[in-house]
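During the reporting period the student researcher (J.K.) took over the structure-prediction task from the postdoctoral fellow and processed the backlog of single-chain submissions. One of the processed entries is reproduced below for the supervisory committee.
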Amino acid sequence: MFCNQNYKFGVIPKKDGYAIRLALKPGYITSEQLDAISYIAKNFGEDRIHITTRQGIGLKIKFEYLEEAERLLNDVGIKLGSTGKRIRQIVACIGTECPNSIGDSIKLAGMIHDEFEGIWVPKKLKINISGCPNDCTHHQFCDIGICFRYILKIDKKECSECGKCRSFCEVDAIDWKNKVIKENCIGLGECLKLCNAIKVEDKVISIFIGGKGGRFPKRGKFLANVKTENGVIKVIDGIIELYTKFGKGRVCDFVEHVGIESIKKSLKEKGLI
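J.K. obtained the following structure tokens:
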């Protein structure tokens, strides 16, 4: 694989060597992989390793060691990657290791990595996944953001009208008088600890599109709620197809140009949302 500058994917030329980035599967790496990375850094480079902002690893090596470094990495299941106009390193929180987790973000991130990491797109494309609405990965400020969340309800038969929930919600999503959960509920589920009347009606995976960090950050727009991890994969595939056909700038520019409602309509017509 080669990018537009005719440099190998994951390799950035410097005046005194190459900076290489590793396409790590989200979540965990093994001690064997760490040993290989350490060996390369010590023997082929500067004996130091950079942890990237996207949970990846980069290191600098001398020109003559590129092929040997890539071979050692491939031997332990690591490829070069996460550069150029491609889908970049997938970012995930710690998922089920966290007590707040609603879904397995690492499992889903691994599925997305296997399916999409490294493929060509009009501009770099970043995908972040949060296991709950606490947004530890800042999923609403990247090209495609994904979040596991609850759909909550109030069981009127169970409600004793104790009033504990009246001022509990930070976003005022609990309509205590009418005993309903309003649409502005973020789905974290902290209110489930209050009483038995507040219940989980459903668990969904919310998808946002068109967010961006950088100097002029933009919050992504809500696209759809999906029930399964495979459903998320299909929606991402549909987004990438549309973006590849009609996108010229970043995904946020594509969303602004085409319109979120038009994107929703296209995905609905294909049966993806």
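The committee noted the following: DSSP finds six helices and twelve strands in the chain.
J.K. will present the remaining backlog at the next meeting.
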